[in-house]
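User: Please run a holo structure prediction.
Assistant: Happy to. Please share the sequence and the ligand.
User: Here you go; the ligand is S-adenosylmethionine.
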Amino acid sequence: MADITRLRPEEQAVVDAFHRLYYPFFGDTRWMGVEAQKCPFDLFVYQELILELRPDLIVECGTASGGSATFLASICQLVGHGEVVSIDIDNSAGKSQPLHPRLSYVQGDTLSPDTLQRISELVAGKQCVLVILDDDHNRDHVLEELRCYGRFVTNGSYLVVEDSNVNGNPVLPEFGPGPMEAIETFMQQSNEFEIDRSREKFLISFNPKGFLKKRGEARHGPSQYEAGVPAPGEDLLQKLEIIKLQARMMNEMRLKLESMQRDKALMENSLGWQMLQRYRGLRNRLLPANTPLRRWYEQLRLRLISKD
Ligand SMILES: C[S@@+](CC[C@H](N)C(=O)[O-])C[C@H]1O[C@@H](n2cnc3c(N)ncnc32)[C@H](O)[C@@H]1O
């Protein structure tokens, strides 16, 4: 396995040069058609981490289009265990947030009391929790997240700080203090985590020194995966998940129907609608349906409103 800490300076210079060359193109990365703002090497590392740890819950701060969240959920699906909750302050892309039976969303600022309360409810009782910080990359925000979200990470699992490569590490030198500086301060103040540089084995990672492993014995989630063979019961689990997905879709349809009913009620209470009803009542009294007079009136009306 490549050890990033043992590269000679001239080797590190080559890696950094490629990192800078590649960086402008990383936005063109998709998982199942959805944009994932990640380095593909890091996605592969997440896959390995999920298989090793089998987390019960992955908390992702920063959803954007949902590509990375869907990737994580897909790997949980393949492993047969775990769920993902992804938080974003902006759900303007809300309607197109990708659906996956193992993925849910929370809207809000990651550091707001409401969000922290919601996440602490979700992690309660979980054996293995993995956290990924990928939202606001300014140092002070990330440092506060390290403090608040570090406590949700279970022993032996990871707190991944994304995008520590900015501010000249080695990209975007003009960024200003960011995730790397937050990691440095956090590691001076806390002894709970160690930096695991073995997760940078592909040499290029957008998260240099960003894979923080919580000290202590890991408690893995149950193993339901063996050499690509679905575990017994996996079939049933998949069916249950399809039922869950269908239930969510039904719920969305019900909400849409309810909002249509509300729109209908609004229309019926409007002055325009009431005047139209009055006009129809008068017309039916003066020109009863199925009479020659009413037929003549309808023909005249159609001729008047037609464009010819
Ligand atoms: C780098 S993108 C996330 C990328 C995504 N994880 C991926 O890999 O595809 C950052 C996201 O964080 C969100 N964000 C920024 N500040 C936030 C905050 N304080 N709380 C929650 N979300 C925030 C933004 O709306 C944006 O969608």
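The chain is about 45% helix and 15% strand.
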